[in-house]
Amino acid sequence: MILSTEKLTKIFGLGCPECLDNTGSEKKNSICSFCGSVVAVKSVDLQLSEGEVLGIVGESGSGKSTLLQLIYGDISPTTGSVYTTYFRDKSGAMKDILKADLNERNQIRNSLMSIIYQNPRLGLNYLFSAGGNIAEKIIMKGEKRYKSIRDKSLYYMEKTELPLSRSDDYPDKFSGGQQQRIQISKALSTEPKILLLDEPTTGLDLSVQAKILDLIRHLQKQYNFTMIIVSHDLGVIKHLTDITVVMKNGEIVEKGLTDQVLEDPQHPYSQLLVSSIL
Fold first, then answer.
1. Cβ–Cβ < 8 Å for 271, 262
2. For the whole prediction, is pTM greater than 0.85?
3. Are 245 and 229 within 8 A, CB to CB?
4. How many other C-beta atoms are found inside a 10 Å radius of the C-beta of residue 173?
5. Tens-binned pLDDT, residue by residue, of the chain (278 aa)
6. Where are the domains of the chain?
7. 3-state DSSP: the chain helix, strand, coil percent, rounded to 5?
8. Long-range contacts from 97-106, C-beta under 8 angstroms, 24+ separation
9. What secondary structure letter does DSSP report for 247?
10. Residue 128 burial by CB count (10 A; 0-12/13-18/19+): exposed, middle or buried?
11. Cβ(72)–Cβ(113) under 8 Å?
């Protein structure tokens, strides 16, 4: 087990004692009728093995992107924990990465875990060149030798099929698909054990989507990193993942092998989700 979450919960708003009992898939609502708070993620438990690829699907507002942001530490949970085998205390016991101090958190984000956002502007610094964005990540991991930084930046640009001649161009000079490739290069440049992807192909042309998906699948097989991918597109999930969880109103309503979930869904919502693309 490389990564796990325990009872991970995020409530937007003041919250009240009735929030969890008053929301969720059975209540068909994520808004607490008592206090008006939004229970975006509710008591989510996940376990991933090394090299495993997990897909998270659900309608808009189901909590899937919030769950990813919680795992990465972009937002703080209301309750719950995230553990990884690579973050332990002196006794060897796994530590909750959500309780890491600032230095530990930076180490986790710069070495262990990377994220690729739907909007490249969340993942790239538009004041830096393409190569500079990748170099920034490498420097944050601790590399100080200029030649090594430059060589690694160009290496990962090449891996993602970006023209090396454009390493000094700024991100806004690239197409949407190329900006996603810069994000992928940046995310992989520190050789993370865990890669998180939030709707990485949304808004791209179909031909560009296919190339990005093929690239991600190729790199995952080459480097064997664990991957969590959020998408509303079941075609993306089928193309990339081993295991799929279905979320509704902040809760996981179904989990299983991707082929099983897509070909023989058990939960009524999963059945509706799958039938909508047939």
1. no
2. yes
3. no
4. 11
5. 899 999 999 999 999 999 999 999 888 899 999 999 999 999 999 999 999 999 999 998 999 999 999 999 999 999 999 999 999 988 988 999 999 999 999 889 988 999 999 999 999 999 999 999 999 999 999 989 999 999 999 999 998 999 999 999 999 999 999 999 999 999 999 999 999 999 988 878 888 888 888 989 999 999 999 999 999 889 899 989 999 999 999 999 999 999 999 999 999 999 999 998 65
6. 3-125+195-275
7. 40, 25, 35
8. 97/73, 98/70, 98/73, 105/73, 106/140
9. E
10. middle
11. yes
> What are the residue ranges of helices labelled H in the chain?
64-72, 102-107, 120-123, 130-141, 146-159, 176-188, 206-223, 234-240, 258-263, 268-275
**Structure tokens given for 205:** 């042309």
For residue 201, give the amino acid letter.
T
Tell the residue number behind the tokens 């490389």, with chain if given.
2
What residue type is 93 in one-letter code?
A: A
Neighbour count for residue 164 (Cβ, 10 Å): 12
SS3 13: coil
The CATH architecture of the domain made up of 3-125+195-275 is 3-Layer(aba) Sandwich (3.40)
